[in-house]
Structure formats: structure tokens, C-alpha cells
Amino acid sequence: MKIMMASSWTCFLQLRNMAEKAGSDGRETMNEQAIANTYSILRSEMNQLYSKITEIEMEVSEHSLVIGAIQPLDPSRRCYRMIGGVLVERTVKEVLPAVQRNKEGLEEVITRLNEALEKKKKEIAEFELKHKIKIRKSDNEDKNDNNRKEGSAQGVLVGPASEQGV
């Protein structure tokens, strides 16, 4: 199974007695690799939760737009709704409550996913403490951060001085 870690983060394990373990028969390296793989899986699961929450929040936003658009309309007006890939004709009176129920259901799912995300964050924090995992930014990211800091400073942009005006 191929596990991809976040490209900008590198995981460094700092375990006790690293010098002593370097001379061992290689079993410690396997343990470190297993720990790194498990940690990578946990981080991947957390990222998947973030992605799913974002996706469902966008759906809630779309539902809100639809509700806002059809709520002021005449309840007997024709309305079309996509159900399972099939476009069906209904009235605003029939569609509005269904869209509102769907929105409420999506909001409940977001709540549950946020709870799962918090549990996953705690699990990762406990795993980091248990295995003494430290996360450091890579050298490239440190350089990018420095460039962003320099570029984000507010001030006046001054071009090259001309010999006539100075």
C-alpha cells in the first residue's frame, strides 16, 4: 500500500538512544517505519475528514442559495428538481420543504464529521506524544515562508531612481 504524506511536511522521529539503535540489527528501523506509516495514515484520515467537511459545507451553501431563490416564489409555481439523476417536475410548495430537510440533514452530518475530526486530532496528538514525533517544515517551505513574509509587508514600492528626477 502506497502512502503519500503531505508534500510540504516531513516527519522526523526523535526516539531515545538513537545512537544505540543505529548499531542494532535493523528491527528498530522497521518499528520506526511502522510508526511513520501509521502516523501518515492518521494524518491522511484527518485530511479526508477536512475535505469531506468542506465538500458538504459547499452543498449546504448551494441548498441555502436554492432556498433563498424559491422561498419568495408563489407556492403553486412549477419547479424542477433533480432526484437521483432524473429531473422531475414539482411545485415550489413540494420542493421547498424537501430542500430544507436535506440542508438540515447535511448540517447534522457536518456536526458529526466535526466531532470525528476532533477525535482524530486527539488521537494524532496522543500518538505524537507516545512516539515522540516532532514535525518540522522542510527547508524549501522555510524559504517560501521567508519570501511570503517579505512580500506581504505593507509599504511603498519604489522603482529604480532616475538620474534626472533625483
TrEMBL record:
InterPro entries: PFD2, PFD_beta-like, Prefoldin. GO terms for molecular function: unfolded protein binding. Residues 96-130 form a coiled coil. One of its GO terms (cellular component) is prefoldin complex. Signal peptide: none annotated. Residues 135-166 are annotated as: Disordered. It comes from the Eukaryota. The keyword Coiled coil applies. Keywords: Chaperone, Coiled coil. Residues 135-151 have a biased composition (Basic and acidic residues). GO terms for biological process: protein folding; response to cold. The keyword rRNA-binding does not apply. Belongs to the prefoldin subunit beta family. This is Prefoldin subunit 2. It comes from Dioscorea zingiberensis.
